[in-house]
């Protein structure tokens, strides 16, 4: 599968912002304005979509309205990249209303994480487009933004910001596919999930928040039964936060590491964990479709190609 890279950003370009999932809630406004200021201070212009300021339940409009806002951002030639203001819960309901032919002919970086996993997988599957799994407007990191979006050369070695861990020894290289684990797994069986062939030699990356250990086991087992895990060459695990305890107090639960290694005991691919991506952390960008290598013995992650041209 040939991945298509969008054009790099230049200082002075316009960045579109959409509320593709949660609306800009009152408690978000301070961080939202702070993120916008960082974008402005870097020298970029901002174009806010029609979903900014709208609220409907846990979204910023009906699924069709949100899709129309995203479609219009791709159609607008003056907008050179699109950022989600944050994640949420409703992105999967938007996918059926997106104009994938329009998007294919107007490729540009679509940026965000968590619920934005749905969009990254849909764009990768339908348009062969690189997906920019990285900080959104509410949690904006200017260094990674500039490194991955304004430079058409490999980012190279990225140093750990926290303590990374070796869970299974080895080294490998391959193209990245992944996102938030439960959202990624929920797309299995739909038209918005990559074919098994797209996972040949891939490095599967995932993070999780607010789930129980038994659900994490379910999601990984779902990927196993679907044939995904036998295709991949390695696994990178980000932050796993706010794990819900089992309802039954008598249950003795394993550690996350014990659980993951048990589910994956039939495979030999290397696993590195606690990387700097996920919720409540600075996100090292993990562009879908881009080739990386990693070595668990040195806890080293290298980006072997650029995500933009």
From TrEMBL:
The LD-carboxypeptidase N-terminal domain, residue ranges: 15-133
Residues of the LD-carboxypeptidase C-terminal domain: 173-293
Family under the similarity heading: Belongs to the peptidase S66 family.
Source organism of the structure: Candidatus Daviesbacteria bacterium RIFCSPLOWO2_02_FULL_36_7
Lineage: Bacteria, Candidatus Daviesiibacteriota
Name of this chain's protein: LD-carboxypeptidase
Active site, UniProt feature: 114 (nucleophile), 207 (charge relay system), 279 (charge relay system)
GO molecular function: hydrolase activity
InterPro entries given in the database record: Carboxypeptidase_A_C_sf, Class_I_gatase-like, LdcA_N, Peptidase_S66_N, Peptidase_S66C, S66_fam
Keyword Hydrolase attached: yes
Top-level taxon in the UniProt lineage: Bacteria
Keywords of the record: Hydrolase
Any Pfam family the entry gives: Peptidase_S66C
